[in-house]
Records
---
Amino acid sequence: MRAVVQRVSRAAVGVAGEAVAGIGAGFLVLLGVAHGDVPADAVALAEKVVGLRVFPDDEERMNRSIGENGGSVLVVSQFTLLADVTRGRRPSFTGAADPAAAAPLVEAFAAAVARAGIPVALGRFGAHMDVELVNDGPVTLVIEVSGGRLT
């Protein structure tokens, strides 16, 4: 499971001109699910994201977590994060889990974040989404989990 975590001032998702979800300050998490990912991966990744200390403290140092900062998380599934571009010019997406396996793991990730007391919004799984964000910092991190452990 791979996540691109962006600290944002605000983020929103739309589908076909319809607003689907949006948040104020917090994280936009682009989430890719790979073949073989399991619920323990979703939980481990959620715990890591919730615990990241990348929000400024009173001295403007990155020293607060999203819970301490009072932020929200917008989760957007993105199978293209698992693209293999080592050969040719067309990415291969064979490493991405099929939708029937990926959707429940995206939900499991969001549920684990919510259990930590963080408000969560979700994009629409499998839809062509318009994602808008204002990256705050910018702060962008890539996190990978496999077998319930960070890799």
---
Amino acid sequence: MSDNDLAETGAPDFDSARFRQVMGHFCTGVTVVTGLSGGAPAGFTAVSFTSVSLDPPLVSICATNTSKSWPAIQASGAFCVNILAEDQEALCREFAMSGGDKFRGVGWTRSHGTGSPLLNDVLAWVDCRIEQEYQAGDHTIVLGRVVDLGIEEEGAPLLFFRGGYGGFEP
């Protein structure tokens, strides 16, 4: 198949399982994105997080279009990205689940910038106001303007690679 053939049909010569398998070979950090919904905390696990710009300070996250947590957070106009430590896999899995009280037994405080939940014992956090959103396939790409940030703990990050979790040794 030539590049022209792909451009003409618009259809790739692979399925979503193959795409997931290949993309799984790229190691990512793990975050929990949090916000408030009518004063109540909401959150979800996200591995699609990146720095976008230094001036102005911008980051991006991706939320699946089927997420029940993102619309709740989105309504507040703000979110906090909590960067997980290597010993926080259980927290990651809890926030990856749909429904339920994800914050039961989880310590947190309100961030100074937006009031979004800042989880206890994370490596670092980035507090943002929603700048822009873009629909992209089965996800929403959210651009956040950083209003505050900090390092909470020194340590190694929780990483996601080939469908599993692990740590990092330099």
